[in-house]
Amino acid sequence: MSVESPQPHGKSNNVTEFVFMGLWGNKQVELLFFLFFLLCYLVILTGNFLILLTITCSHLIEQPMYYFLCHLSLMDLCYTSTVVPRLIRDLVAARKNISYNNCMAQLFTAHLLAGVEILILVSMALDRYVAIVKPLHYMVLMNRRRCNTLVFMAWGVGFWHSVALLLVVLHLPFCGPNQIDHYICDVKPLLKLVCKDIHVVNILMIANSGMVVVAVFLILVASYILILYNLRSCSSVGRRKALSTCSSHVMVVILFFVPCIYIYVLPAGSENKDKEVSVFYTVIAPMLNPLIYTLRNMEMRIAMGKVWSKMTHSKFQ
């Protein structure tokens, strides 16, 4: 039996570890999905690594759109590596346990990286808006210094959001049970284990995560509506190119934000499909992002071919 360490501010906390209930109770189904998620993770690693390699080793890194895409791929790699390896391990593990400290670390890291990713998507929408609405001033408005500022701001806001979330959860009393009805340490499944009234905490969580996600999503939707409105004055070739780029961004935004809104706007305790829906933004969206940005983008495909031929040429010299 583990000895309980003294808790600050009179907080009652008898829990030293949590146990994930996982996605499914059926062992055969879990083994099948072990192979599926392992394949998904390999695709995520390969696809995002190829994007990073192609952009950093070509002229594309000089363009703001690809500079932001580089950061988006990095966030996808880091975020999925925080969540998916443990999910894969737990699908075949006899006991899906995680220590209290590791659970809090996963909660903080996942929300930090997801927060940064959301704001990188906003920066990408801003970049497309300036490119289409103010093409003559594009290089001045979206210079490297401004792009760096947007990335630093994304990290700053993401960090603030995660710290605020973590401080609230650290001051909550967990007296047992310790079974998390999920495959990751997230706010809502943890709130269901708190042994006090969580009405006020629920409101804080919805304000911190839910309303922010909805507000950012509406800003992104508004920006793409403005982009489409301004495309009327473009030539047919320019319009086609802009629509191709923007449609890729819109697909990524929908894949990421719609499941997030579903999860973080509804309060904890409500009966919904949180853990099943969260698979979309923890696994499916990061896996499809590289495919969306490479298969639909001629510039990326050409740059990828050049980088690959340069690497193979230097290898055989």
Structural description of this entry:
- With 317 residues, the protein is mainly alpha-helical.
- The chain is built from ten helices and three strands; from the N terminus they run βααβαααβααααα.
- The chain has helices at 27-56, 64-92, 100-133, 138-141, 144-170, 187-191, 199-230, 236-265, 274-295, 298-315, and strands at 17-20, 97-99, 179-180.
- It has a three-stranded mixed sheet.
- The protein is globular.
- The termini are far apart.
- Residues 1-10 have low confidence and may be disordered.
Major sheet strand order: 2-1-3
Task: Pick out the low-confidence regions.
Answer: 1-10
Largest sheet: 3 strands, mixed
Binned, the helix content reads: over 70%
Order of helices and strands: EHHEHHHEHHHHH
What is the radius of gyration?
A: 22 Å
Find the count of extended strands (DSSP E, 2+ residues).
3
Assembly category: single chain
Q: Which structural class fits the helix and strand makeup?
A: mainly alpha
Q: Please state the average pLDDT score.
A: 83
Number of helices: 10
